[in-house]
Amino acid sequence: MPARASEPSRASRSADFGQWYLDVVRDAELASYAPVRGCIVVRPYGFALWEHVRDALDRRIKETGHENIYLPLLVPESLLETEAEHVEGFSPQVAWVTHGGAAALTERLAIRPTSEAMVGAVYRDLIQSYRDLPVLVNQWANVVRWELRTRPFLRTAEFLWQEGHTFHASAAEAREEAERMLDVYREIWEEWLAIPTIRGRKSEAEKFPGAEVTLTGEALMGDRRALQMGTSHDLGSNFARAFDIRFLDRDNERRHPFGTSWGFSWRTIGAVIMVHGDQQGLVLPPRIAPIHVVIVPIWRTTDEQVAVESATARVEALLRDQAVFGDQRIRVRIDRRDEVSPGYKFNHWELRGVPIRLEVGPREIAAGAVVVSERVLETDSTHAKASVPIDRLAADVAARLERLQARLLERAAVFQHANTHRVSGWDELVEVGAEQGGFLVTGWCGSAACERDVHAATGMTLRVLPFDGQLEEIERPAVCVRCGAPASETAVFARAY
Questions:
Q1: Could you tell me which residues are beta bridge partners of residue 160?
Q2: Residues 399 and 444 both lie in one domain
Q3: Which residues share a beta bridge with 110?
Q4: pLDDT for 380-426, tens place per residue?
Q5: Burial of 324 from C-beta contacts in 10 A (0-12 / 13-18 / 19+)
Q6: Residue 1 pLDDT > 70, yes or no?
Q7: One domain, residues 125 and 187
Q8: Are both 309 and 270 inside the same structural domain?
Q9: Rounded to 5 degrees, what are φ and ψ at 252?
Q10: In a domain? residue 218
Q11: Which of 368, 386, 407 delimits the end of a domain?
């Protein structure tokens, strides 16, 4: 067979994490840059990865009683300005349409930065009675935010996401909804993406513009920076008041409903790369991997090729028909390329993070077996490679996928725990933040001035005020790390994307 082709060089993950990330996105053919500033072309492998995440979340959203809708991409400026706090928060990032053809528009149209304003205008007419509540809808869409600094998947001028929007008769129902949807996100983060998070509230300075409370899940990337994985907002009656949405309640009184919104974007693909990837490239949790198993046929002569291709087809059919991973059928690919060597193919699929590789050659055919290799993790001490009889292959592959999914979550949790530091004083906060990074857990008095001081001195932001039980092993801080006043909150600071 031909010699192995050359591959592009890849930056060191440990020495230049940012460039390593960009190299993996390029080399694994997830995305490429578009001829529009800040935008990317998501290539088939990258989009397949997003589809598996999207479909898993879409099923859970529907299981909680929500229905999908679609809202217009263009939002009139007057509509966006209706909720002043919301506009103030987004105005630096809004892209505007000023002309239709050659004619100037009488009113500028915003390209959707988010859809709360449109939802408010639409449901002002659709909500009239308590019988119309709750409204539980979700939209899968693209949005545009004119970011100054962009990075594929993590922060782009245009990106894909879902945004849920709900209205409820009571404040308690709205808060329960916001908490429920954050827990749905947690299931996807942990059970599908194998990424642990610290969940809780955002500070007033960090919350969504116009929200009463913003709930968040924060994850730690491989370079010890934090990433906001998704948010769920209790909007109170703020947006309903701004858009004059009222309903007739059971006591025949007109009241404003209480709203929520919640969003999850393709930045989670960036998180998967940064949490699980290694110097070889992607390491994909099997639940979201576009390909579970790649089969590499190995042969030298024409006679061997005929026998190997026949055996390979039988193995593929067996896996498709008999192997089941959770609620998924096994996704199989045969690499039939004859212009590159087996070694090149091995590296190619390791780069793309395919969980399992099967090798089928004359010796395997004679033994009635297949060589099974798992995607090796840099932290593993042994290479998980074995000869497996074909009659046990379906069960063996399914079990390996389950183990790899669990191992990735465990490995990420160990990393997060090792890089979560309890700090009690100002000097310690500054030193640990500069030298070690990670999540810094400390006391906070609730003062916006103290929060600003931390950011100014360290570059860290207050990522989350964790829910009770999120950091049980860490003693609750007694005083504010900045001013020394009694701490009203346990706060998690970190440098973030």
A1: 142
A2: no
A3: 75, 96
A4: 655 568 999 999 999 999 999 999 999 999 999 999 999 999 999 99
A5: middle
A6: no
A7: yes
A8: no
A9: 65, 30
A10: yes
A11: 407
72/197 same-domain check: yes
pTM: 0.95
Peptide linkage before 486 cis (omega within 30 of 0): no
Same structural domain for residues 82 and 172?
Answer: yes
Same structural domain, 268 and 298: no
